[in-house]
Amino acid sequence: MSGLTDAALAADIAEAAGQVLLAVREELLDSGAEDQRAIAKAGDQRAQDFIAERLAAERPQDAVLSEEAKDDLSRLDAARVWIIDPLDGTKEFSQGRHDWAVHVALWEDGELAAGAVALPGIGQTLRSDDPPAVPAREDDSAPLRFAISRSHPSELITAVIEESGGGSVAMGSAGFKVCAVVRGEADAYVHAGGQFEWDSAAPIAVARAAGLFASRLDGSPMRYNQRDVYLPDLIVCRPADADRVRAAVDAATARA
């Protein structure tokens, strides 16, 4: 065991798994692989194996919830549960893009206790124990920039942008979008229509540590290590923008 704190371990594992993924992708592309689904599957599996092995060695008593592993629900009786997405953004990864991520979070006694999001494509890892300072907006009344899906923006986010008079910044994975708000590349991320706990746990841990507002669309808290891991919607933004974003979400929802 390394003796790392939980947050430091999350960051170390996420960053190392990101390097594993970069190596896997380079290896497959160099060998002439063209099937994007096969590249994504190989990356998912290799990262899952790496993370599972590290957690088993470093925190053998803890439970694990991962997108790429069977959930036997024993975690519901555990005080500490690692929530993992070995590869968030398989499409972006397999296409050779940069906007994908690795998520490693720890849930402890009812709350997210630590988290890290590796962004290997840009060589950065965001962590809850040392979050970056969210860049200040020059004009708090300026139109908001919403992080949206490059390939399939939802009807809701399109309506939210219209209601708020804002603009959009297109990008890939969920974790990358949350981190875009943390990093100041976007002002808000609103999602509805399908995510699971592993899609948001680590990004939300980092966002909260950085002082951002995070909630469900209806304003209720994000809750993790639930029996049903479906957690389909979220809002992430600066606290000063939360009322504007919530109002736009409410108006857009009423239109639907």
UniProtKB/TrEMBL annotation:
Q: Which domain of life is it from?
A: Bacteria
- Cite the entry's keywords alphabetically: Magnesium, Metal-binding
Question: Which InterPro entries does the protein's record reference?
Answer: CysQ/Inositol_MonoPase, Inositol_monoP_metal-BS, Inositol_monophosphatase-like
Please list the reactions this protein catalyses.
adenosine 3',5'-bisphosphate + H2O = AMP + phosphate
Q: Pfam families given for it?
A: Inositol_P
Protein name listed in UniProt: 3'(2'),5-bisphosphonucleoside 3'(2')-phosphohydrolase
Species the sequence originates in: Ornithinimicrobium faecis
